[in-house]
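User: Let's play a game. I give you a shape written as tokens, and you guess the letters that built it. Ready? Here's round one.
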């Protein structure tokens, strides 16, 4: 029987088998097992420091595994020659892109074009518009991120690996980027990106892998994750609401202060709204909980994973 999330070798663009990385006494990745299917957007979720970037560095051959291995397009990441042979099919956006601040954006892209090509450069610059004539030292964080996005995609790779790709982008550019990723997936590209923002993953990903303290907690569809994660509900009533007033399944982590109550709800929303009609509701907000809350509700404790 295959471990959770592992696909057959003919379907997987990335396949991770027992991947383990230690730095001295620190176990950064602990026997990871998962696969990324060709033509999907796979989100790699976890709070900062959970081991996401370490996994990416090993997949790209920057760091050697302590134990286990992974393959990318069938190339073993421990085999430098084999991995070099498939790297032209990979685009990479690191979490903190390294730039020579003394060059202009155009010069930076010209350099990468000489290394790997730039067939889609103009198309991408029409979507993401860093000021190419200015030195990178003058760039805002958002402009640096857009420049990094252009270089990652401009050679038209089959697999794009990104570490926190929307960091620093304003909301409009984030949405443009999300639309772009979905179109790339629809064209058959494979996207693997790490994030700690659940809302971002909900909008673009097909499946997610959740990592905590270096261990893979689960691999599942976004729909399953969000259904189990529930929503955070905040309701303001004219009379204080108590937990015993809500006689329905799915109410957890109930808290109240004065006439405002908040709780996580994992049940049927029609039943919730029907229940609230018996109270005089002044205001109600329903939103996704932070990813940390999802972790604590479903994966906290010693037996997580």
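Assistant: Ready! My guess for every position:
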């Amino acid at each position: 029987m295959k471990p959770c999330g592992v696909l057959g070798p003919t379907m997987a663009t990335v396949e991770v088998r027992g991947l383990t990385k230690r730095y001295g006494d620190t176990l950064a990745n602990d026997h990871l097992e998962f696969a990324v299917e060709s033509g999907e957007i796979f989100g790699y979720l976890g709070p900062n420091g959970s081991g996401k970037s370490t996994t990416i560095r090993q997949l790209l051959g920057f760091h050697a595994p302590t134990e286990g291995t992974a393959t990318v397009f069938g190339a073993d990441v421990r085999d430098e020659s084999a991995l070099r042979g498939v790297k032209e099919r990979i685009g990479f956006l690191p979490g903190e892109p390294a730039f020579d601040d003394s060059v202009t954006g155009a010069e930076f892209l010209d350099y990468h074009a000489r290394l790997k090509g730039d067939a889609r450069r103009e198309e991408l610059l029409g979507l993401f518009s860093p000021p190419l004539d200015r030195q990178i030292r003058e760039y805002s964080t958002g402009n640096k991120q857009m420049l990094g996005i252009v270089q990652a995609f401009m050679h038209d790779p089959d697999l794009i690996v990104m570490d926190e790709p929307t960091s620093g982008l304003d909301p409009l550019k984030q949405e443009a980027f999300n639309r772009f990723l979905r179109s790339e997936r629809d064209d058959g590209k494979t996207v693997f990106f790490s994030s700690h923002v659940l809302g971002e993953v909900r909008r673009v990903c097909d499946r997610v892998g959740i990592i905590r303290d270096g261990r893979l907690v689960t691999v599942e569809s976004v729909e399953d994750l969000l259904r189990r994660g529930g929503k955070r509900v905040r309701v303001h009533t004219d009379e204080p609401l108590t937990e015993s007033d809500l006689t329905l399944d799915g109410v957890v982590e109930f808290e109240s202060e004065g006439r405002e109550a908040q709780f996580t709800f994992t049940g049927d929303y029609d039943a919730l709204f029907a229940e609230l009609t018996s109270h005089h509701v002044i205001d109600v907000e329903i939103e996704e909980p932070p990813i940390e809350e999802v972790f604590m509700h479903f994966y906290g404790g010693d037996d997580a994973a």
